[in-house]
UniProtKB/TrEMBL annotation:
SUPFAM superfamilies referenced in this protein's UniProt entry, alphabetically: FAD/NAD(P)-binding domain (SSF51905)
Coiled-coil ranges per UniProt: none
Alphabetically ordered keywords of this record: FAD, Flavoprotein, Oxidoreductase
InterPro entries: FAD/NAD-bd_sf (IPR036188), FMO-like (IPR050346)
Protein name in the entry: (Perigord truffle) hypothetical protein
Any Pfam family matching the protein: Pyr_redox_3
GO molecular function: oxidoreductase activity
Length: 318
């Protein structure tokens, strides 16, 4: 079978796949490069097929976009958090306007193409059977379209949300329709508009679970929200407007250099600031004061003590 040779193949055309392609082509503009995407739309979690009503970004303008092209504001923003369709449009425009050797990143994306096999060969070859133009290992990639592609470099940029995890219920009596939030945009309208669906159970505590709970409650459904009692509970909750005047939202506070030094992250360089905040009495007092204040504000915003049911959602803090 005849195969097609590429210098680079990137699996996934979400934000990471797009920026990986851009970075490589900036350094090697004449390279042959292809992005393989299972979905029929680029964007990964921000694909137009995965954008559901009420879906907003978790990061604000100035932090969600790529550094070389600022994301334009939109009237639909809230404290600089933008609707998901705005993020998708940004990624689509970014891929279309970054052109290398006469071909944009968007032109290099092969949509509706699932990778089904990857094989590493020690004998380099290209699609014609001749010696590869580059020495070293060669990757042979097979797709569900029956295509065989060969490359000298393979990047996996599929992210952590590309494959749904749905719990198994071992009972024949429990047979309601089930959907994953990956399919929320496609199937949620059917559930919300159906008069036969009156009760909805949401399992999980991530951002998409918050969105699903809000979506179905807004549609007049009775919602039971189940979060396992082992672990840290649901995702953190904070009010965007509860910030000092200088900052536009809470993300900007957490992204300052000062706050990074107060974080116990092992990847922070051990400099004088880290020593002060974590290994001196005054520094520990200041660090504890800052985090306790923020923790109090977040718990108050989440209203964990508002009712008996809500108190069960309080994170299990050490």
């Amino acid at each position: 079978m005849t195969s097609t040779y590429f210098d680079v193949i990137i699996v996934g055309a979400g934000p990471f796949g797009i920026i990986a392609a851009k970075t490589y082509l900036e350094l090697n503009p004449t390279a042959t490069l292809a992005l393989l995407e299972t979905d029929t739309s680029l964007g990964g979690a921000w694909s137009k097929n995965r954008v559901y009503p009420g879906m907003y970004s978790q990061s604000p303008l100035g932090m969600i976009e790529f550094s070389d092209v600022p994301m334009k504001p939109t009237p639909q923003h809230y404290k600089n958090y933008v609707p998901a369709h705005h993020v998708h449009e940004y990624l689509a425009l970014y891929a279309a306007t970054h052109i290398y050797d006469g071909k944009s990143i968007k032109d290099r994306i092969r949509l509706d193409t699932r990778v089904v096999s990857v094989q590493k060969l020690r004998s380099p070859r290209d699609g014609t059977g001749s010696e590869s133009r580059r020495r070293g290992s060669t990757w042979v990639v097979g797709t569900d379209c029956g295509q065989t592609m060969v490359c000298s470099k393979l990047m996996i940029a599929t992210g952590i949300t590309s494959r749904p995890y749905i719990p198994f219920f071992n009972t024949l009596d429990f047979t309601p329709p089930m959907l994953h939030t990956k399919d929320l945009a496609r199937l949620a309208p059917m559930f919300m508009e159906s008069e036969g669906v009156r009760n909805v159970i949401v399992i999980g505590g991530s951002k998409s679970a918050f969105d699903a709970v809000h979506m179905f409650i807004s549609a007049g459904k009775r919602v039971d929200w189940i979060i396992r009692d082992k672990g840290s509970g649901h995702a953190g909750v904070g009010l965007a407007e509860r910030t000092p005047v200088y900052y536009k939202n809470s993300h900007q506070i957490l992204s300052t250099r000062l706050m990074s030094k107060m974080s116990p992250c092992i990847f922070q360089p051990h400099d004088h600031w880290m020593h002060f905040f974590h290994q001196t009495r005054v520094g520990r007092w200041a660090t504890d004061m800052v985090w306790n204040t923020m923790q109090f504000a977040w718990l108050k915003a989440a209203r964990c003590g508002h009712s008996g049911d809500a108190s069960g959602a309080r994170p299990q803090l050490p």
